[in-house]
Amino acid sequence: MRYSKVLIPTLKENPSDAEVVSHRLLLRAGFIRKLTSGVYNYLPLGLAAIRKVERIVREEMNRAGAQELLMPMVQPADLWKESGRWEQYGPELLRFTDRHEHESCLGPTHEEVITDLVRREVHSYRDLPLNLYQIQTKFRDEIRPRFGLMRGREFVMKDAYSFDASDQDADVSYQAMRDAYHRIFSRCGLSFRAVEADTGSIGGSFSHEFMVLAATGEDTLVICQACSYAANMEKARVRPPAGGGDEPVLLALERVETPGKRKVEAVTEFLGISPQQLVKTMVYLVDGRLVAVLVRGDHEVQPVKLKNLLGAVEVELADDDRVFAVTGVPTGYLGPQGLAIEVVADQEVMAMRNFVIGANEKNFHLKNANVGRDFSVAQSADLRQVTEQDRCAVCGGQLELTRGIEVGHIFKLGDKYSRAMQATFQDSEGVEQPFVMGCYGIGVSRVVAAAIEQNHDEHGIIFPLPIAPVQVVILPLGAKEAAITTAAETLYEELGRQGIEVMLDDRDERPGVKFKDADLIGVPYRVTIGKRFVQEGLIECRRRRDGQTETLPMTGAAEHLAGLIRAELAALAVPGRV
Ligand code: ATP
Ligand code: MG
User: Fold this and answer.
1) C-beta of 407 in contact with ligand 1 (< 6 A)
2) Most exposed residue of 384, 393, 422, 557, measured as fewest CB within 10 angstroms of its CB?
3) What is the pLDDT of residues 426-479, one digit of tens each?
4) Of 446, 448, 452, best ligand 1 pocket probe by most atoms within 8 Å of the beta carbon
5) Nearest alpha-carbon partner for 83 in 122, 116, 124, 107
6) Which spans in 31-88 are helix H?
7) How many angstroms separate the alpha carbon of residue 475 from the centre of ligand 1?
C-alpha cells in the first residue's frame, strides 16, 4: 500500500460534532465519513480495520464448528408476527411496506429468519448440533445514534445461532461460543471482561456480555474483587438485607412540614436524618401505566430489574406533569400511603423501620412510616442499582465498579423462538421436539471503535497490532535522496514478501507531517529511513504503543521486524476453554 495512492483524508482539527475519542479519531484519521445520522461510509483504512476483526471472528467461529452463511437484510413482517416481536420490538425496528403492500423490516437481528430456515431444512436429531453464523450489516433505528461507530443505525454484526436437541447439548454449544469469544477478543489484542447480563427483548434464559474495558464506556460493570462474579449494572444482584437483630419499636406516624424541600438531600438535611432513613417514591411509566417504586434515599432504581419484575416491554421514568395529572401530588412530596397507583418496593425497603416518606401533599412529609402498618406494596424484589458500598451477592467480597463497552453478547434462548414458530425436529424416539437455541452477537464495527477508546493518546490511535489496518509504515525522510528512496522501496518489498501488511509513505511531505499522520492513523510499527541510513546504513524502528525505538542495520531488518510481529500476534492467541 502506497500512502499517495490511498484515500486517507486526515483532518488537522477535531470535528465539532464528535463527542467521544474514537469518533473524533476515526474521522480525523480518515477512516469513516458520515452519510446521515448513524450511517457511515467506511473508507479504505476503516474498512481494513473492520476486515481484520472479521477475519479473527471468522477463524474462531469456524474453529468452534460454526458454519458461515448470509441471510437477507430485508425480512418479511409475517415471521416477526409469528415470534411475537412485530409488536414487541419497538421503534428500533425499521418497518416499511413494499409496492405489493407487503409489510417488511430491515433486520436488526435474525432469530426469526434463521429459525424459519432451520425449521424448513433440518428435521432430525441426527443433524444436530448446528451452529450457523453470518457477518452482515444490521439496521436499528436507534433513538440517539451517536459516538460514530459505537452506536450507529447501520453497523456490521456477526450473529450466530445454535440449534440443539436438548438443554444439556445447548449448554455445550453456549460454552463453546463463550470460549470462542474469549479467543476472539484476546486475539484482537483487547482488554475485556465477560459479565452476566440481562436477556432483554431477545429473550431467553441466561446470557453474558463481553465488555471492552474503557473509562469512556457507556456501560458500568460490577466486578467482585474476591470471586469470579462479574455482571453489568442492569443485572448485578444486590445481597438481600441482613435480617435478625432486635426489632425496633414502631413509632407513631407523624406529619411534618418540610417547606420547599423536595430533594432527598434537602429533606434529610432539614429533618436532621440520613438518606438511609428516607424512602423515595419514584414513578415509572410501565407500558403506558404509572407504577411507583420505593427505594431507600441513597439508592437508585434499576429500570431493567423493574421491567423484568413486571414483565414489561418498556419502562421509563414518568415526567412530572403526567405524575401530577394522575396523582395530584407535586414532585418531591410523593409517598406510598394512599397513592392511587400500583406500588412496588425494593427489597431493602421491606427491612426498614420508622422511615420518612412523602405525605402526598405539598410541603409535607411523614415520619416513622412502616410498611404493612401505614401502606402496603403489591410486590417487592431487588429493584435497585448496586453501589460500591454493597458486598458481592455471591461471596460477600468487595465490589468494584468500572466502565466498559459492550462488544459481544451471547444468549441461551431455549425454545422461545422454536416454540413460537413451531420449529421442531424428530428426536431419537421419533417424537417432534422444539430446537433448543442460542444466539451470539459481536458488534464488529463497534469493536474497532472500542479498540480506539481503549488504545489512544494525544497524538492519535494506538491500534492493537492484530486489528491495525497496516502493521508497519515506512517513512523515507528526504525524498530527494535516491539512496533513501531505493532503500525504502526495497524494505517495502521485503516486508511484503514476509507477509507483513506494510504501507510506504511515498508522499512528498515534510518529515513532521509524515510522523504526525503515522501516529494519527495508529500504525503499530514505524520505520524511518533518513540521514543515518546514508551515513551508516542504519534505520530506525519505533513501536507506537510505548515509543520503544530500535536502531537496526538495513540488512536483515525485514526478517527481524516480521519476527517481532509474528511473535506478538502468537502471544495473543489463547488456546482452549475458560
Ligand atoms: P446495546 O445495549 O449497546 O444497545 P444490544 O444489547 O442492543 O446493544 P445486541 O442485540 O446484543 O445489542 O447486539 C449484539 C452486538 O451488536 C452488541 O453486543 C454490540 O456490540 C453490537 N451493537 C448493538 N447495537 C449497536 C449499534 N447501534 N451500533 C453498533 N454496534 C451495535
Ligand atoms: Mg446486548
Assistant:
1) yes
2) 422
3) 999 999 999 999 999 999 999 999 999 999 999 999 999 999 999 999 999 976
4) 446
5) 116
6) 44-63, 77-83, 85-88
7) 38
